[in-house]
Design brief:
Helices cover 41% and strands 16% of the residues. It is built from 15 helices and 13 strands. Strands 3-2-1-4-5-6-7 form a seven-stranded parallel β-sheet, with helices on both faces. Strands 10-9-8-11-12-13 form a six-stranded parallel β-sheet, sandwiched between helices. Strand 11, helix 9 and strand 12 form a beta-alpha-beta unit.
Length: 405
Amino acid sequence: MKRIVFFSGDITRGGGTERVGILIANALADCKEYEVSVVSLTHGAPQPAFFLSPSIRREALSDHWVTPGPGYLPLIFRLKKYIKQQKADLIIDIDGVLDILSLPVKWMTGVRVISWEHFNYHYFDQVGSGYRNVIRRLAARYADAIVVLTERDRGFYLEHLKIRHEIRVIHNPADYLEPDQSGSIHMSEKKELLSVGGLVDAKGFVRVPRIARVLKERYPSLNFVWRIAGEGEQRAEIEGQIRECGVQDQVKLLGRIADVSPLYDQADLYVMTSKREGLPMVLLEAKQYGLPIVSYDILTGPSEVIDDGVNGRLIPETGDEQKDAAAMADAIGRLLTDEALYDSFAQHARDHIEDFLLEPIVEQWKELLELVLSGKLDIDTAAETCGITPEEFQEKLAKAKKQNR
């Protein structure tokens, strides 16, 4: 039996990264070939926000959060001790930043490491997170494989880094939700817009009041409410914007909601205002519920889920907040006031849902695990990944091994 350790910052958090990490861990734990455990830097809550199989052991390296830096040094040795105790064969880092801990442990113990990146390559450029770029270079050289969420992101990695191993695209799954598909999606008299996520800068919810004001002004006969499920540091700022824009009756902050299924059931349209994402779980959830989606066309994520003009709208960003708000409001308004257009989008909302089903995604993970654990490198695949011939790749591999002796 192969022992797999999922490594998380905090597996008890209720974010999309933790949700999908637990989904894959649970699925692998159901397979006879694997013994699965989860270790976190720390636990912020007594229990995970999502169901974790009772067969999966869960531990934390620290009783408090540790900021990246010198404080990580003791955690490296705690992780090393944990890996040796578990006799682990492989670590899956559920965030590329954790490679800074797992790669030294690999050098000390021989455990294999898969870096699973949930953020797009350029996600942190806007916030100046240089240490992540350093860690990515280390992972490109020393990890046994990198998993990214989109083809576009895979292209960024190949463009900016010298990848010396497998880099694969494995999507997040969407079918962990079980919506009621007995009836067709149709608009209610009062149109319900839904957004889900933390009230933080990356999610762009500070844009919502301005968009809602334009929507209210340009479509005065449109009776709508825009519900936002989530909590975070920007709540007070968003509340102020709601009052300033005069949309208290239209925009509702619901706070943290444990079960968002009823919200998707009630919604007519999903709207994403994010500034940056990887492959957003919320878009996959909306797709699973058959909802048309309107989203800003940010670098990665929406374009992998939305077929513009078929099941949703992708709104280009110009950098001009007023113009962007107006474009988003117009896309929403036209869709919600044109029943034929809405019905057409709804009929195609679940197009290509098979690309995001759990069972084939787990099989992709198992295939990668077997490749990494066997120590056998698929030369043809790896050479294609690097854009060279198999013979050239073998020469580079032999040279790299010689240098690392």
